[in-house]
Amino acid sequence: MRVMTSGHVALALGAFWMLATVGWGESDTAADGERRVASALPQVAAYRLRVRIEPPTAARPSGWIVGESRLCVRSARGQTMSAISMRLYHGLRVRDVRCDAQPLSFEQQVVPVQPWEAMKVNRIAVHMPAMSPGESRALVVRYEGVVNGYREFAPYIVDGVTSTDALLREDVCWYPRIGPATREGLLATGDERAHYRLYVDVPSSWETVAAGRLRKCETRGGRRLYEWATVYPSPRCDLVCGQFQRIPIAAAITLHCRPPSSAKTVAVAETARRAFALCTQWLGPCPFPDLAIVETPAGSGGQTAPGLILMPSDGLRPEGDTQQEMVADAIGWIGHELSHLWTVPSREEHVSRWLDEGISNYLGGRMLEECAGPRAREAYMDRQRQYFREGGHLAYQTPLAECGRVDEARDPVARGKGPWVLYVLEHMVGREQVDRMLRELRLRHHQSGATLHHFADIASEVSGRRLDKFFDAWFWDTASSDLLCARLTAAEMARRYTEP
């Protein structure tokens, strides 16, 4: 995900990573805590969400949403459960909770998400009949209230309802999620994948776009009613409402932009077509062929999930004094987000972000070369190098495999140094071999997730070479930091590993 803010890393496929860089405990890691929390949490296999969205009025200047969430909950293995903790946005209040049509007692309280005092949620403790290990129950939670984003915590979380549109993303906890009001709880829930059925009730002048297939749309009594169903299990349910123009990108892929579209928007659509075609050529058929790309408010950050890409207005109005500069900016937004469709979830102990952001930044350079020429790619890679250098001593001394443990080093290492791993490898074995490596990574680990060791093994297998020295320098140690800071070219670096 590309987000134009400082101090926060945004969401990626399968995890609530925008929370990962705000602060970690001294004696624990987010990954360790996440695994412990996840193993104790009941699992949700499916959600059925109903939401009615009302625009602002004099009495309710922030608008109003009325929601009902039906969760198919299964208790954790080896545990008997008689209580469940859930989180909801702090402006939403639960009216009632039911299980098998019977009302359940519950308490709710607005609390900070520990250790982030600036992020507050409504913590709901539900008392329910005891569930034996592995038993499933259906919970129905009804709630209503306002959503006003989390600008005080992360400036790009601008979700809410205005007089012309609405943006509701999982980031803002607009529907109940199971788990404690802690950092580890949010991270653990972010890795959960489920099917969603979504029913949306909005003013008749609004459209609604969400991930999956539109099963129904009808207008009744001045309201428009939508029913969406996910095609692929997803870690999140997001929706965007408003007025849109539709621009086809490819078969079953559409850009939904706010009217009126401009010449820049049309240029971005063309860039998206080109980027999608290139990724398909290099990496194979798109794993998620049913895809909506939707314009969201400026500053809200780009985001990719199965079946849905959210693109802020600034990403659809590329900047630059020349055509090449505008192409580069468009690829940095739409090309980057599209490439995430081919990346795999991480199963690293300390998530480095290389498997998503590092790979996507490398692919962004490849796209730029195809669209604007080799010099444009060289300039792009130099910017990634400079980003790494700006990370300072901490980034220089942190191996890529360990950057998930060091908040301040994660982005400069994963996003700055990260694309250079494949750039140098490309000069060692050729682009076709790198493409094969990425295809194999996707083929083998798109469901189970991968680690850096998985990629290193695949690279050696595909290339038929021993690449231990290379990966020691670029993944497990910091010798590659010297090469990047010495401003060697990728070809010069590659010769360090290919010449006797």
Structure report:
By secondary structure, the chain is α+β, with helices and mostly antiparallel strands. The chain has three domains: 1-241, Sandwich (Immunoglobulin-like), CATH 2.60.40.1730; 244-342, 2-Layer Sandwich (Zincin-like); 345-498, Neutral Protease Domain 2 (Neutral Protease, domain 2), CATH 1.10.390.10. It is 35% helix and 28% strand. It has 13 helices and 21 strands. It has helices at residues 30-40, 183-190, 263-283, 323-339, 354-372, 374-390, 392-396, 407-429, 431-445, 452-463, 468-476, 479-485, 490-498, and strands spanning 43-54, 64-74, 81-89, 92-99, 102-104, 106-113, 116-131, 136-145, 160-161, 166-168, 177-178, 195-203, 207-210, 213-220, 223-229, 239-242, 245-250, 253-257, 291-296, 303-305, 308-312. It has an eight-stranded mixed β-sheet with strand order 5-4-8-2-1-12-15-14, with no helix packed on it. Strands 17-18-19-21-20 form a five-stranded mixed β-sheet, covered by helices on one side. Strands 6-7-3-11 form a four-stranded antiparallel β-sheet, with helices on one face. A hairpin with a 2-residue loop joins strand 17 and strand 18. The longest helix has 23 residues, at 407-429. It is globular, with a radius of gyration of 23 Å. The model is unreliable at 2-39 (pLDDT under 50).
Write a brief caption for the model.
With 500 residues, this protein is α+β, with helices and mostly antiparallel strands. It contains 13 helices and 21 strands.
